[in-house]
């Protein structure tokens, strides 16, 4: 398995949006969110310079969006297409992000919907819950210069 990340281009938005809504539709329904409002918000928040496309053996299988926020690197979005989940791709990508953050001296932070099983991955990789709201757990992994 060879996972790599490539910088997104503006033209990648359609791919990212399609994968986002395919993977998030059940959650959007569960949380009773307005789909049109949510689509407009995702378009507004998607910034090509912050996005990387996840590539497995030459095929695009997901994407992530990170940005510096204060003393941390914030993982704003992270999606792996369902057929590729459970194969270690998410773990490999997260380890890459964790290794990146110490280079900049930053902790890694994220928010995860409470019903999302990915929170187990984050906990296994050393993230801890810092707080929560009615929909999400907010997690942080401190910068580790030895990672």
What does this structure look like?
With 147 residues, the protein is of the alpha+beta class. Helices cover 35% and strands 33% of the residues. It contains 4 helices and 7 strands; from the N terminus they run βααβββαβαββ. Strands 1-2-3-4-5-7-6 form a 7-stranded mixed beta sheet, sandwiched between helices. Helix 3 (89-103) links the parallel strand 4 and strand 5 (107-113). The mean pLDDT is 91.
Order of helices and strands: EHHEEEHEHEE
Number of strands: 7
Largest sheet: 7 strands, mixed
The end-to-end span amounts to 22 Å
Q: How many helical stretches?
A: 4
Which range does the strand content fall in?
A: 25-35%
Main-sheet strand order equals 1-2-3-4-5-7-6
How much helix is in the residues?
25-40%
Overall 3D shape: globular
In the predicted model, the low-confidence regions spanning at least 5 consecutive residues are none
The chain-level mean pLDDT equals 91
Task: Write down the oligomeric state.
Answer: single chain
Alpha-beta content class: alpha+beta
The rounded Rg comes to 15 Å
In short:
By secondary structure, the chain is of the alpha+beta class.
Can you tag this structure with a few keywords?
single chain; 147 residues; alpha+beta
What layout of secondary structure does this protein have?
Layout: E1 3-7, H1 13-30, H2 35-45, E2 51-56, E3 59-69, E4 72-80, H3 89-103, E5 107-113, H4 118-124, E6 128-132, E7 136-141
Parallel strand pairs: 4-5
Antiparallel strand pairs: 1-2, 2-3, 3-4, 5-7, 6-7
